[in-house]
Design a protein that fits this description.
The protein has 77 residues and is α+β, with helices and mostly antiparallel strands. It has one domain. The protein is built from two helices and three strands, in the order βααββ. The radius of gyration is 19 Å and the shape is elongated.
């Protein structure tokens, strides 16, 4: 007996709700602060970028359940 064909629908687990202009503005601010502080601020850029990604991700909680925004400690990068 041959196995039945099953259609699998892949749904995204998360969705980014941030805008391109929002992250672009943050990069400009980080660049200017890095230049002004002679590169010292660059140590804070990566953690701030990760924080932005976590805050702007819309994460599906259950199969068909509601989504949770900004789940702490979970990053999809």
């Amino acid at each position: 007996m041959l196995p039945k064909k099953v259609a699998v629908v892949m749904r995204p687990v998360s969705q980014l709700v941030g805008t391109g202009w929002g992250i672009f503005g943050l990069w400009i601010k980080w660049l200017l602060l890095s230049i002004i502080t002679l590169g010292i601020y660059t140590f804070w850029v990566y953690p701030r970028l990760m924080q932005w990604k976590v805050e702007k991700n819309l994460l599906r909680v259950g199969r068909n359940g509601p989504a949770s925004r900004g789940v702490q400690g979970f990053s999809l990068c």
